[in-house]
Design goal:
- There is one protein chain.
- The protein has helices at about 1-15, 30-35, 120-125, 155-170, 180-185; strands at about 40-50, 55-70, 75-80, 85, 105-110, 110-115, 240, 270, 290, 300, 305, 320-325, 335, 340-345, 355-360, 360, 365-370, 370-375, 385-395, 395, 400-405, 410, 420, 425, 445-450, 455, 470, 475-480, 485, 485-490, 500-505, 515-520, 525, 530-535.
- It has about 525 residues and is mostly beta strands.
- Strands 13, 15, 16, 19, 20 and 21 form a six-stranded mixed sheet that branches. Strands 23, 28, 29, 32, 33 and 34 form a six-stranded mixed sheet that branches.
- The longest helix has 15 residues, at about 1-15.
- The chain starts with a helix and ends with a strand.
Length: about 525
């Protein structure tokens, strides 16, 4: 009974403070609608520095399945979440830039795409399947190469034949990706030249750098440079056919990610991603190359795509710009150890699958919906200059967001959750403070805040406060009407998660009736302006 009472009080107070408890969203139902087993995998995504070298990596989560095609050969297919992006570029230094213009917004439904370009082993196995229209060429080029290098010298008709044979063998409608799907998948939410940054190097991709220039195909995935969707070799190694007809610009391009097969030239189709004998410009995410259907060469390959029946349910989680805010003040840009934060964005997830990761470690969640998550910053960020935040939901992680860490970042909770106006305060008689029920001068009033920073004893992430509440390690002052109010007690709230701060103070005697501004100072940091309590 005591446990239920604590939970009830906790829910009531969190609702009072605008921190509503658990809200459930739609679930990903892949297991019920897609026969291959959907799996999740964790990996790290590289980011490049100004010289194209790997500067750092961040953890990511993505979904995939394995298509078994016989003889021990598998085709890993990544589940790409749906979303919107800006396709194309305005790169004035690129001679072919007009073909990449105008930049336009495209919305893409969730689909599956090959984790790697099609390999020699996969090509050889599918070559044994019954012919649909034409024969597939054998691995006659560079026979000493590993079976795990991409197949190349692939003609357009051969790419179609490969897909058709696979369709018959598996019962699933494998196809080539559309050009919009390819660029969306390659970018994985980025707007830089390459999915790992502005600059490329041989550490991250296989292309012709003009110096080292190994000019050899490399085994798929050997660079260990996946993007956030778990896709390898999107830059360099082999060009990859897309299903659209070729067009000289993006004028009139579809905005829904579909294959653009009106107008254009049916004798040519786009090839994307660059290849091992071409330079850096051709390997950019936005670079477009025309491929003639009757010509192929070493370096021309393909990557598979597949429509998914749950495409409307699986969307890319995105944290909005300045979307990580102090839950009390609603001010963005920084956080302190133990602070309760609100994360705003889109497709953020549901109760069962969502996690928020700070520097690789999951943190306690107080509220989850599609557009908002309330979480607790781990105390482990103390003494760091910044922290990296990632949201995971339904098998996909968001792009990382970096936020500054400060010693204290106090915010007072307000009655309407906006961060300004009437303070969320309780009078000594138990009534909520308001203009109708003001706090008498000289009486006690209870306020709630977050962002006090480290505590005594040291804060424990996710701890539910017991009978001896932790206290802020920094000095605390509360000003009511500009007067330093006497503090009765300051500390955590028993029965609630560490990071929620309760301040009980006496309303100064000489204050006049009406709204009086309230400011909480912890160390050298002040709470937000524009908050008041009502004094009677």
């Amino acid at each position: 009974m005591q446990k239920m009472e604590i939970h009830s009080r906790r829910s009531t107070l969190l609702h009072f403070l605008g921190l509503a408890v658990w809200s459930q969203g739609p679930k990903l139902s892949a297991q019920n609608v897609l026969s291959p087993q959907i799996r999740s995998r964790r990996f790290t995504v590289p980011l490049s520095d100004s010289e194209g070298r790997i500067a750092s990596r961040y953890p990511a989560l993505s979904s995939y399945f394995l298509e078994e095609i016989g003889n021990g050969v598998q085709i890993p297919m990544a589940v790409v979440p749906g979303g919107s992006f800006f396709m194309g570029s305005n790169a004035p230094a690129i001679p072919l830039a007009p073909i990449e213009q105008p930049i336009h917004k495209v919305s893409v439904r969730s689909f599956a795409i090959g984790v790697f370009p099609v390999t020699r082993a996969q090509w050889a196995q599918v070559s044994t399947f019954p012919k649909v229209s034409i024969s597939l060429h054998q691995n006659v080029v560079a026979p000493s190469l590993s079976d795990q290098v991409p197949i190349d010298v692939v003609f357009w008709d051969e790419a179609q034949e490969f897909c058709s044979r696979l369709q018959r063998a598996t019962g699933r409608a494998y196809r080539l990706p559309t050009e919009a799907e390819w660029e969306y998948s390659c970018r994985a939410g980025t707007e830089t030249n390459y999915h790992f940054g502005q600059v490329i190097s041989l550490d991250l991709a296989n292309y012709n750098d003009g110096f080292v220039r190994p000019l050899n195909l490399t085994p798929v995935g050997s660079k260990n440079a996946p993007n956030r969707f778990g896709l390898h070799d999107m830059h360099g190694n082999v060009l990859e056919w897309c299903s659209d007809r070729s067009h000289d610009t993006y004028v009139g391009a579809p905005a829904d990610g579909s294959s653009w097969n009106t107008d254009g030239d049916s004798s040519f189709h786009p090839s994307r991603g660059g290849m091992f004998v071409w330079n850096v410009g051709s390997a950019r995410s936005a670079a477009r190359m025309k491929g003639y259907v009757e010509v192929s060469f070493s370096g021309q390959g393909l990557r598979l795509a597949l429509d998914l029946p749950f495409s409307n349910d699986f969307m890319d989680p995105k944290v909005a710009s300045n979307g990580l805010r102090n839950s009390a003040s609603s001010i963005a840009g920084q956080a302190s150890p133990g602070q309760i934060v609100s994360i705003y964005g889109a497709n953020l997830g549901d109760v069962e699958s969502t996690r928020v990761i700070f520097d690789g470690n999951p943190v306690p969640l107080l509220f989850v919906s599609q557009n908002q998550i309330n979480a607790v910053v781990p105390y482990e960020v103390a003494n760091k200059a910044e922290t990296q935040v990632i949201v995971e939901g339904r098998g996909q992680s968001s792009a990382p967001v970096t936020i500054a860490v400060v010693v204290a970042n106090p915010g007072l909770f307000t009655a309407d959750g906006s961060g300004t106006g009437q303070c969320a305060a309780i009078n000594q008689d138990g009534n909520s403070n308001s203009t109708a029920t003001p706090a008498p001068s000289g009486s006690l009033v209870t306020l709630f805040a977050t962002g006090e920073g480290q505590t005594i004893p040291p804060g424990v992430t996710g701890l539910v406060v017991g009978s001896t509440p932790p206290m802020p390690s920094l000095p605390v002052k509360l000003f009511i009407g500009g007067i330093n109010a006497d503090l009765n007690s300051v500390g955590g709230v028993p029965g609630y998660v560490a990071g929620l701060l309760q301040i009980i103070a006496r309303v100064p005697e000489r204050l006049s009736a009406g709204p009086q501004p309230v400011v909480l100072r912890i160390g050298d940091a002040n709470s937000q302006e524009g908050v008041f309590i009502s004094v009677g």
